[in-house]
Amino acid sequence: MNLQAFQLFDLPVIPRKLCAARLGGVAEWPKAPVSKTGESKGSQGSNPCPTAISLLPGSRLSLISTMSELKILFEDEYLVAIDKPSGLLVHPSWIAPAYTPNAVALLRDYLQDTVYTIHRLDRATSGVILFAKQKQVAHDMNLAFAERQVRKTYLCVTRGYTPEAGLIDYALKPIFDKKADPFADPDKPAKEAQSEFRRLGTIELPFAVSRYPSARYSLVEVKPHTGRKHQIRRHLKHIFHPLVGDTAHGDGKHNRLFREKFDLHRLLLMATELEFTHPVSGELVNLQCPVDAACDRLFQRFGWDGLYLS
Hints:
Blueprint: E1 20-23, E2 27-28, E3 52-55, E4 61-64, E5 69-75, E6 79-84, H1 103-111, E7 116-117, E8 126-132, H2 135-146, E9 151-159, E10 165-169, E11 194-205, E12 215-224, H3 231-238, H4 252-262, E13 269-277, E14 284-288, H5 293-301
Parallel strand pairs: 8-13
Antiparallel strand pairs: 1-2, 1-14, 3-4, 4-5, 5-6, 6-8, 7-8, 9-12, 9-13, 10-11, 11-12, 13-14
């Protein structure tokens, strides 16, 4: 991109397309109705944190955060998948005040029944996440994740131009939190971790960062083969391309640039696809989740439209 031609203009809001869930074919699922109630920013990494919940009579679950709406992506008798906004906790945590909204509590209220966690997304990460309605189904899906039978795809933005494609094979030491688990052994050996990636697009922006006269970024698709804590964030940092918006493993100068120039206050890491064999029916399930509206507008300004699910 010609730096002189790049302008910070406002584009109209582009409606998000309906996310498709394919179960042995293609099936489209209706959007949840929206009830706007309020918004704020969270305290962890300047990521948005939802502040209000609304359950409309006879409707799907609706929750508004600063940047995204929580939607049901897929639901049957055994499983339910949602589009988790950046900033929403998966379950209650000591890192947030009591009664902070979390996905488990919201789904429990929606289903009026117990819901079982199958896997995790970091609070700052958005996208598709799967839950079970039955304990045995949760056990079977946990096993599928542990045995690497579930295919996961993420989208992220990194500092600099990454290689066109590659496999990061770099063992990661477990991350322990002394407050959450004060008796954990901090000296456990590193565990194998692999992340496959390919670069989808690049951009050079006319903003000086540190000693460089301009700033370069990449749009990257990542397929982790393992599931270590902060794996994608740590692996991309390992190859010197940290994620934009990552306050734990990223570059503060570039995070600040995106806040100040684009009013973007989130980690640019999104879980966009989940594919697995249904634990009961045996059919192949492919769940796809678009990026949120704020990221979609930004990526279109960068000329990346058509390179990702929107």
